[in-house]
């Protein structure tokens, strides 16, 4: 993939979650390998090849802005973050409109087991604004996902609650290119106190 081609894909990090099952601790502010989870996740998108990164903030947004080094990122506030991931995805895609981006590589702040190798594989499968690409783990669809701009209106129209783009991807399953990543990443989520053991 040429640098020009890569420049057409923006990284979109969904980092608005309130950590309801973590006692209300915003996930972006959890620590992993000496950095805040949101900084770690931005680093993954950068290392994968995303020059432009939009970060959707919600829970604890002021704290995240104050404590996290997100220089070079476009920060997007999602006042409706409590409605679930769908609202953050809509806010993020909205923020990319008019930027010239032809696709968005979407990742989640609470999946530190997914590193640059997996993100770069998904990014590498980008072709044009009609691309629909998803990481797969032993054949099961996961994150990150790449949405060509031609799909953004349809995704925004169906992204509700915590379902994100699930309904849209299911409806367009025949057109989704799966990129196997189980050999380079672990797709666990940091959702509960028990999951904190994954953080280093």
Q: What do you see in this structure?
A:
- The chain is of the alpha/beta class and 200 residues long.
- It is 29% helix and 22% strand.
- It is built from seven helices and nine strands; from the N terminus they run αβββαβαβαβαββααβ.
- The strands form two sheets. A seven-stranded mixed sheet has the order 5-4-1-6-8-7-9, with helices on both faces. A two-stranded antiparallel sheet has the order 2-3.
- Helix 4 (85-96) runs antiparallel to helix 6 (152-158).
What would the keywords be for this entry?
7 helices; alpha/beta; 29% helix; 7-stranded mixed beta sheet; 9 strands; two-stranded antiparallel sheet; 200 residues
Give a short summary of the structure:
With 200 residues, this protein is α/β, with parallel strands linked by helices.
Give the helices and strands, then pairings.
Elements: H1 3-7, E1 9-15, E2 31-32, E3 35-36, H2 37-48, E4 53-57, H3 61-67, E5 74-77, H4 85-96, E6 103-108, H5 116-124, E7 132-137, E8 140-148, H6 152-158, H7 166-171, E9 177-180
Parallel strand pairs: 1-4, 1-6, 4-5, 7-9
Antiparallel strand pairs: 2-3, 6-8, 7-8
């Amino acid at each position: 993939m040429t640098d020009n081609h890569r420049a057409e894909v923006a990284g979109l990090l969904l980092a608005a979650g309130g950590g309801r099952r973590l006692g209300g601790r915003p996930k972006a502010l959890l620590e992993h390998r000496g950095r805040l989870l949101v900084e770690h996740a931005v680093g993954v998108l950068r290392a994968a090849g995303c020059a432009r990164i939009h970060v959707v903030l919600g829970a604890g947004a002021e704290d995240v802005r104050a404590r996290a080094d997100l220089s070079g990122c476009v920060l997007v506030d999602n006042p409706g973050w409590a409605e679930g991931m769908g609202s953050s995805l809509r806010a993020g895609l909205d923020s990319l409109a008019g930027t010239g981006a032809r696709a968005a590589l979407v990742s989640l702040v609470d999946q530190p087991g997914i590193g640059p190798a997996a993100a770069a594989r998904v990014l590498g499968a980008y072709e044009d604004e009609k691309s629909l690409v998803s990481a797969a783990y032993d054949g099961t669809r996961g994150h990150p996902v790449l949405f060509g701009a031609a799909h953004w209106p349809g995704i925004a129209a169906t992204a509700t609650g915590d379902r994100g783009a699930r309904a849209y991807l299911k409806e367009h399953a025949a057109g989704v290119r799966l990129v196997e990543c189980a050999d380079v990443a672990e797709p666990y989520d940091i959702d509960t106190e028990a999951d904190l053991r994954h953080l280093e």
